[in-house]
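ingest -> validate -> predict -> emit
validate: passed (alphabet ok, no gaps, 84 aa)
predict: started
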Amino acid sequence: MQIAKLSSKGQISIPQAIREAAHLEPGDHVGFELRGDGIVLTPIRQRPLSSFKGVWRTEVPVDDLAPLRQQRASDWATRYREED
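emit:
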């Protein structure tokens, strides 16, 4: 078990071995949850949407997705009407 001391401001430093094992980097978010007599820290793995830029290829500019969404909704509506 690793031990850390709580500061007067309610802060702790996560021991280096724990940070490395959990792949925590400066600026990462961590969730806290009370469980029984303990506290569980969970890394929050959220990526900003901007980090996905270029991952999916499309001919539609990213800032103009409204027509694509409308077409998809229309396609789904047509498909469901055909199945009834």
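The mean pLDDT is 82.
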